[in-house]
Amino acid sequence: MVSIVKYFYQEKIETREIHFSDDSKCLILSPLSMKYGDIQLMKIMWDLSINYVNKFEIKYIILDFSRAEDISSTSIGLLLKLANDLQEKQCDIVLANPSKTMHTIFKNIGLDKMFRTYPNNYQALLAFRSATLF
Predict the structure, then answer these.
(1) pLDDT (tens digit, 9 = 90+) per residue, 85-122?
(2) Is the separation of the CB atoms in 96 and 120 below 8 Å?
(3) Cα separation of 117 and 86, whole Å?
């Protein structure tokens, strides 16, 4: 059984918390709009991720880029810092729905080897769900 808790943070990021039947939890962060140079949103996503992991024992995080057009080098740096911080807390992070531009950037700088990327949130959730079964 899966339950979903959904709310918006400062009207900029849609946040969904998924509870699996084995008590593991997944957080999906979706910026409502993200354009090149929008570093504030990456900072908010970093803060939310770390706070959720610390307070609610979140084990999986999906960063949903379905509404993002592009990503700046500073935002990529924050993404790498977030991945390192979450790895220390034994939390798995994946990317979902990157635009073609973002996917190309990730591939060109090697981020496609550091982050598992899925074409949609459903496939990312399935990957996490299957990981919790073993």
Answers:
(1) 989 988 999 999 998 988 899 999 998 888 999 999 89
(2) yes
(3) 17
Cα–Cα distances in Å, from 51 out to 17, 54, 110? 13, 5, 28
Coil/strand/helix, residue 102:
helix
Q: What phi and psi values does residue 7 have, to the nearest 5 degrees? A: -155, 175
80: its two tokens: 């790498």
Is the residue at 119 inside a domain?
Answer: yes
- The tokens for 106 are 């990730």
Q: Count Cβ atoms below 10 Å from residue 106 Cβ, excluding itself.
A: 21
Give a yes or no: residue 129 inside a domain: no
**Domain count within the chain:** 1
Residues 29, 49 contacting (CB under 8 angstroms): yes
- In a domain, residue 134? The reply is no
pLDDT digits (tens, 9 = 90+) for 59-93: 888 989 888 878 888 888 888 988 999 899 889 99
Which DSSP symbol is given to 10? T
- For the CA atoms of 96, 121, 63, 20, the dihedral, rounded to the nearest 10 degrees, stands at -140
What does the block give as tokens for 95? Answer: 């990317």
